[in-house]
Hints:
Elements: E1 7-10, E2 14-17, E3 26-27, E4 36-43, E5 49-54, E6 69-71, E7 75-80, E8 99-104, E9 113-122
Antiparallel strand pairs: 1-9, 2-9, 3-8, 4-7, 4-9, 5-6, 5-8
Amino acid sequence: MNLSAIRAQFEPMREVGFADIGADYFPVGAPFANPAYHVVLQNLTDQPAIFSFLPAGQIPLEDGTDDHIVVQSEVAYVLDINTNRTNVASGYIFAQGTQVWVAAFAGAPASGEVVLSVLYGAS
């Protein structure tokens, strides 16, 4: 066992209730406090949701191109951006300060919530 390995750590879970998800984007909790390599989006509402990943301070659709991922209702979507990487010395990350936003895709949900989990590495 390598005791100098990087430990996986979770940031606090972020949640948005169905009542806050509509035609306009709504922030899913606080921006990332750490550079993240694994993100889980859970759309536990009764409608599809669309997500936007933006640098700190940017508001979705400022440039008209910020719709990023649609997640169907009652589905979890995992973004593990370091899987199968070829360079073990470095890898992809979501930048510290990234803000995730959510909006309704086809219609406003009537139940449930959206949950965001963020995993990062710490020494």
